[in-house]
Amino acid sequence: MLNHLQDTVALHNGVRMPGFGLGVFKVQEGEELVEAVKAAIKHGYRSIDTAAIYGNEQGVGRGIREALRENGLRREDLFVTSKVWNADQGYDSAIAAYEASLNKLGLDYLDLYLVHWPVKDKFNETWRALETLYKEGRVKAIGVSNFQIHHLEELMQSASVKPMVNQVELHPRLTQKELLRFAQAQGIRLEAWSPLMQGELLDNGTLKAIGAKYGKTVAQVILRWDIQNGIVTIPKSTKEHRIVENAAIYDFELTAEDMTAIDALNEDRRVGPDPDNFDF
């Protein structure tokens, strides 16, 4: 069990990944982004998740550099993730995309690089590029994002390295239990994006009642549910007080009854695109 914001989980290659991090989806380049990254690191976050398509890797890199300097940390104290976008899928273009992300971030390596979406007829070649980067020691761990079980099965038929992480939409309305069981059986770590369902769950009566028992917010209840399920989670926020609040989940524990009640909210409902039916 994770007992502290900086506690880590082991990926199947032995690399350790923080169980909790900051996501920056839809946060535009600029001072707000830089300050959010700096605030997260100042308050103990050690994992930052971005992607080429977010268009904010430069700001994330600047926030990281300033935070390292101001907090007396080293690059290896952080865990930085980015993702290869769909337009760059394929072997050569994925290698080039990795270089471009490093350049924008101003980093020498990434801790985790993901295939952002399972683009039909392309993701296997893209994966081969990530395997090359990994085998050359240029990235610490590789994985996928938005892959369903059948995508993973197809990938693993030709892969020489099994994905270490699968980052997917996951929240109490989309609990992904079957995918979680499959991933755990395969030694693939599941990571939740949009864990708070983009705010849609914050007025939920069940979650409010559970939170009231512990003096915790709905967001804190959901994020605690994630870590008790062994799921890495990366809530997004740009406000310092919310960044601090989101991480204040290590001083209480949900009961088995609480966990079951949260699981029962599942409707297999997405706020993001369907990995089996997207056109971008």
UniProtKB/TrEMBL annotation:
InterPro entries found in the cross-reference section: AKR (IPR020471), AKR5G (IPR044500), Aldo/ket_reductase_CS (IPR018170), NAD(P)_OxRdtase_dom_sf (IPR036812), NADP_OxRdtase_dom (IPR023210)
Record-linked SUPFAM superfamilies: NAD(P)-linked oxidoreductase
Organism: Paenibacillus artemisiicola
Organism phylogeny: Bacteria, Bacillati, Bacillota, Bacilli, Bacillales
Gene3D superfamilies reported in the protein's UniProt record: NADP-dependent oxidoreductase domain
Residue span, NADP-dependent oxidoreductase domain: 28-267
Protein name: Aldo/keto reductase
Alphabetical keyword list: NADP, Oxidoreductase
Family affiliation: Belongs to the aldo/keto reductase family.
Domain of life: Bacteria
